């Protein structure tokens, strides 16, 4: 085959370009082989969890983490509900305690008032006894005076009779004195009976009031004892509820701290895996771009080789 001068120059240029492209292809193939070797080594180091686009293991782990978060949230809500219930129960016990305390103070005030009434009744009884004693002394004095007057009248009556024996018969002094004595004795007996009846009535009334006051005081003492017992029971229940609330709050704080730390660790692991996936995607994208460049170069090279063959055959 005979070639002209221009064709020889063209062939020489094509040969030079072909040699240059072949060198470039060999260089790119070597780089591609090195890159594939690096990728295989990276996959071998990372293990089976880093296979391209195989995220099933991460989905399972994420689902487990979500379930743990849901369970922790439910536990926290239960603990918060228990704390609220304990707080409400403690408030109820506090209200009952305040009510019982106010009732106890009221009963103690009533007892103090009844004691004052009892003291007043005791003083009144003492006064009545003193008055009765005074009336008895006065009655004795009246009897004594009456007897003295009667004795004097008898003496006068005897003297008059002895002096005036021959006088005209006058009124019967003995009978008059006897009538006066009977009148005085009747009056004294009536006064004595009235005083004794009044005294007995007052004494009976005071005794009834004392008995009633004693019963009321005893009832109030029993109520105070019962209220004290209820108050002690309420205080014990209140302390138990407060202790339970403190324990629940402490447990809630520990649970929140533990789950927060666990969630932080899981979030750190997820972030690390996501970063590795992002790096892997970036590297694969870079390889894809290089592959496209190599494919384009290969296509142009094949086209030029085809042109070169056509020229050689023509």
From TrEMBL:
Which terms in the Gene Ontology molecular function aspect does this entry carry?
Answer: structural molecule activity
Q: Does the keyword Chaperone apply?
A: no
Pfam families, alphabetized: Filament
Q: Coiled coil: present as a keyword of the record?
A: yes
Cellular component terms per the entry's GO annotation:
intermediate filament
Q: Which GO terms describe its biological process?
A: epithelial cell differentiation; intermediate filament organization
**Domain IF rod spans what residues?**
7-314
- The regions listed as transmembrane in this protein's record are none
Which PROSITE patterns does the UniProt entry name for this protein?
Answer: IF_ROD_1 (PS00226), IF_ROD_2 (PS51842)
Q: What is this protein called?
A: K1C42 protein
Q: Which organism is it from?
A: Baryphthengus martii
SMART domains named among the record's database cross-references: Filament
| Keyword list, A-Z | Coiled coil, Intermediate filament, Keratin
